[in-house]
Amino acid sequence: MASDHDGEDILKPLIFRLHESVPEAVREVLLERGWSEFDEQEQDEADWNLYWQNSPFRMTDHRSIKPWQRLNHYPETVRITRKDYLARHLKRMKGIYGPSLCEFSPVAFIMPNDYVKFIAEYTKERQSQGKKPSYWICKPVDLSRGRGILIFQDIKDFVYDCMVIVQKYISNPWLISGYKSDLRLYVCVTSFCPLTIYTYDEGLVRFATEKFDLSSLDNVYAHLTNTSINKFGASYKKNKEGIGRGCKWTFSKFRSYLRSHEVDDLLLWQRINNIVMLTLLAITPSVPLTSNCFELFGFDILIDDTFKPWLLEVNYSPALHLDCSIDTTVKKRLLHDIIELLNYKQTDTLRENKGPGTKTSYAGRTHIPLRTQDENATDDAPNILASRQESEWTATSAVQSLLEVAGGSFKKEAIVMGKMARTHPRKTLTSQLREKMNRPKTSSQSNAASKSKQLPGARHPAHASVQVTHWLPTTELCSYKLTIPPYFLSTKDKRPFPRVGDFVLIFPFNDAALEASRNGIDVKSIVQEIHKLMNKQSPPGQQKVKKRKDYLTFR
Questions:
Q1: Cis peptide upstream of residue 309 (ω within 30 degrees of 0)
Q2: Surface-to-core class of residue 450, CB atoms within 10 Å of its CB (0-12 exposed, 13-18 middle, 19+ buried)
Q3: pLDDT tens column, 300-346
Q4: pTM value?
Q5: What does each C-alpha distance from 282 to 33, 380, 386, 493 come to in angstroms?
């Protein structure tokens, strides 16, 4: 915790609030760090520093955030954590920036909407001479922990009774001693504007507990790596050849294994980082601008026998339960480093506004109590897409906040614009804003604009460079200064910390990427920078992988 004021102020501990469904490990780590738990009977509603729950927060919760507080979710991140939404967003990215961009995700069909397309693809493959028919995997779009998964090759075995996603099954996984595995990579996003992504150096390698066998597609212990399934298998506690007991390794052990077989794993991790950046880039323009949040994702990555990484899915609120000693080693340290990443200062223990310029919210000053988890919410399919009413408020307040820093007369007209949008829904807030910006300026507006250029720390006028992406509908504008200073930037150079504990910054990876995400997300420019990065990585790496293929299939 950073020190920035007199020692007498550090007597008050930091306070955490947890929803009842949060794993006990979170409470244990916070107590180990000297935090105290929030008491609803004894403390004021805003007298806390961290609120952690498995379900999403409402926009009103984000709206009432204080400078000393953090929430463990951004709004609308379900856009990549539901399997069907993820498939749609990656498909859209491919359509705009080329099919080679997202080759890390298997071909996908969302049922029942894509049933005709799937049958056409299935029939085409069956009729192709000399081509071995593909294997397919069917997953319910809103279930987790391996539930409801079906693997099939013949269409007659394909049966479903809910909304599912069907993808080509990766039938050539890289095996260790004959066992299939995947990687659980922890990714923390401290900001979507500017986009700031950290990956965790340590993680989990999860194994199936029976040897891989395509002749027994119904054997979940051979084809699925979910711990929630394999811990009930007959071989879970046995000492398996090359694997050991249980079904998990740490990344540290995994790296040691690769190097002991003379495999250079640098290219693998570079490719995985590219997958993470491109996947998050797909939703960044549509995430509402909010202060003092972070999001921990669990990326599931499978490696095939050519050492190519594939994205299987992205998990919302990845499991933090401690099922074994390896979980304890990885997850408790992960939680400690997350708290370090949140960059609390000693003034945050006071839990009060400091200075005349501090506001209680990025979009308004009215305090609205945080809600508790919806009784109907589930951790499998959190419904965090905002309601129509909340979306209307978000759009209005975002425009108001954007114009608020530019001057009084501009602010008044912004409020009127919000009212007009409700009265005349056909005239959108975006179109009204565009009209306003294209009109000749009055003298008062010109003065306001010139004042906004003199705001401390502002690189651009507050209303400049408003960018609305052409491929995702978004009214959450990212080109204005938040009223709460970002916690994730260094006070020295106003840049993200390059490393915090075992969290390593992977985006922004250069100055061009930083600038392209700082004042409205410029997806095209960032994609170009990632392409440059990938071109530098690929040629020597591909040759290395081919040379080491005999080691990668070691059994």
A1: no
A2: exposed
A3: 999 999 999 999 999 999 999 999 999 999 999 999 999 999 999 99
A4: 0.77
A5: 36, 22, 18, 28
